[in-house]
Amino acid sequence: MEIITNYGFILMALAIVFGLYMTWGIGANDVANAMGTSVGSGAITVKQAILIAAIFEFAGAFIAGGNVTKTIRKGIIDPSSIVNTPEILVFGMLAALLAAAVWLMIASSKGWPVSTTHSIVGAVIGFAVVGIGVDAVQWGKVSQIAASWVVSPVLGGTIAFLLMMSIRRLIFNTENPFESAKRWGPGYVFLVGFIISLVTLFKGLKHLHIELSVGMSFLVAVIFGLVLAGIGWYLINRVKVDPGADRDFHFASVEKVFTPMMIFTACAMAFAHGSNDVANGIGPLAAVVSIIQSGGEVTQKADLPLWILVLGGTGIVIGLATMGYRVMKTIGSGITQLTPSRGYCATLAAAATVVLASRTGLPVSTTHIAVGAVIGVGLARGIGAIDLRVIGNIVVSWVVTLPVGAALSALFFFTLKGMFT
Amino acid sequence: MSSTNPFASMFGKSPFSALQAHMRVALECAHEIPPLFDALAAGDQEGVVAAKDKIFEREAEADKIKNGMRGALPKSLFMPVDRRDLLEVLQMQDSIADTAQDIAGMLVERRMDLPEFMKEPMLALARRSIDACDQSAKIIEELDELLAMGFRGREASRVEEMVEELNLIEDDTDELGIELARHLFEHEDELKPVSVMMWYQLIEWVGDLADYAEKVGDRLRLLIAR
């Protein structure tokens, strides 16, 4: 208890610094993967991607980031195990943040793919098991999270597959594909707005003190979807047939119709990513802050302070603005096979899945879901060639990241504990 | 940083664009055959050699593309079509280029004169065979659209019709080839025996150009059927 009162300020400052560093890292590395499908299909430039990401990552973090943050903050560790020694949680969360951030730094410098979500979850479990005890971890919740890591890419793939089939039936496989695209395009834009807002607003947002009944949620979602569809309709109507390009590839003009539609899905993806991944940086921070500000009480009832969400969102935007440009440039060249129509399916499917996970408070890997969605499009015979070795790489990164994150976290935990006691 | 990104490593090179590039080059080989026979009919030896050189150069280019494509198709690649079917289409396309090379090579190695009675029918056969090659090239160009449609629906039906047309053209070349061989048989004694054998071979080869073109269409049907 005295540790909290004596060192509270330093510990909180440390937490803020580490949290900012983590969210900066998320912005710099992760966002490129979230926006990759949009940039790669040629629908938006890298500069536009950065702008969209800056606005919508922040929005996602602020509006929809609450539930996942709650999970990382207090869903993984059983509070009753540390009621008498709350400083353990403080040291632990600091250690977890530092471990995840360090691992992110190492992996990036070596060019290994790493999931920030897996890092932080592994790190939190790591210090809990080592520093408190195996029983301190809420294994029920953890197995839920682990299951979601397997289920979410499959779900993303399934949704992408279904979207692809519907686009083929309604647009490509018709007498006049271009006209069909112009007719149905706004409907697909409506889908983007409707799904994202419905999942996000369903029954309201607790941390923003917005209450909505089920019926109201649907109504708001429909209205939002219609507004977006209206804008989409306007943008789509400006697309003209290009007879020259059509001679080369009969569906060139149809793809041109999908290009403005991808702007909406890019925004949705940035929003979704912000909502899920901001927690990786500020979840532990929120835990530390709530303990220190309450003078050592391991309360589970306190609301998430809004300034923490703002901090997280800002960190992501700064990371994105400083390093994101360079990272995104490396994506564009290899993904010529992802035409706008394919990109639309993959991105919307991924965004919907991530937003759903954020709603249910489950931290998931946005990158893995996006990969699953692209494979879903490939299963619908929509992509020329997908190298399945990427799945092997993903599994390897799981196997490596979780134990390494846990080990680093345990190490830092004991260091911090030693320093302050 | 590019290896941090799964998207960079996830997409293999599109096998369809490579296949289309290969077909275009193989078609260039085939297109040199009528000029080759025209030059031969006119007794223009230089023209014959020029055509032969062009064919050889293009065939080497086709081989390069073929080998590049084969190297870029690891077993781990997930494609909307069967890998073996794809490679078979490639092989048939390459046979068009190889056969053109055989024809040109023979005509230059063995300074042959095109007998008067053979001029018309041989040129007709050559042109009809190239028609078949043109049709199969048109079919291969539809691969982009097939991919966009998931190898089903209207585009697949359209391609099937094109393959039917291709079969009819190849039937024509069969008939023309038989006619030509019969002609040759009637005039056999007017020519040196070895030349006669070589002309039978050449007739067969020119017909083969159309055969391989038809096979390209056939194998493509397999791609669609999956």
What does this structure look like?
The complex is a heterodimer of chains A (421) and B (226). With 421 residues, chain A is mainly alpha-helical. Chain A has one domain (2-420). Helices cover 79% and strands 0% of the residues of chain A. The mean pLDDT of chain A is 85. Chain B is mainly alpha-helical. Chain B has a single domain (13-71, 80-225), classed as Up-down Bundle (Methane Monooxygenase Hydroxylase, Chain G, domain 1). Chain B is built from nine helices and one strand, in the order ααααβααααα. Chain B has helices at 6-10, 15-31, 33-41, 45-71, 83-109, 116-141, 143-148, 153-186, 193-225, and one strand spanning 77-78. Chain B is elongated, with a radius of gyration of 20 Å. Classes of the chains: A mainly alpha (421), B mainly alpha (226). Chains A and B meet through α1, α6, α11, α13 and β1 of A and α1, α2, β1, α7 and α8 of B. β1 (386-387) of chain A pairs antiparallel with β1 of chain B.
Q: Notable features of this structure?
A:
heterodimer, A: 421 residues, elongated, B: 226 residues, mainly alpha, Methane Monooxygenase Hydroxylase, Chain G, domain 1, 81% helix
Give the fraction of residues assigned to helices of chain A.
over 70%
Order of helices and strands of chain A: HHHHHHHHHHHHHEH
Given as residue ranges, the uncertain stretches of chain B (5+ residues, pLDDT < 50) are none
The major β-sheet of chain A equals: none
Q: State the helix count of chain B.
A: 9
Shape of chain A: elongated
Element order of chain B: H for helix, E for strand: HHHHEHHHHH
Oligomeric status: heterodimer
Radius of gyration of chain B: 20 Å
| SSE-based structural type of chain A | mainly alpha
Into which percentage range does the β-strand content of chain B fall? Answer: under 5%
Largest sheet of chain B, in brief, is:
none
Mean pLDDT, all residues of chain B: 91
Mean pLDDT of chain A: 85
Q: What percentage of amino acids of chain A are in beta strands?
A: under 5%
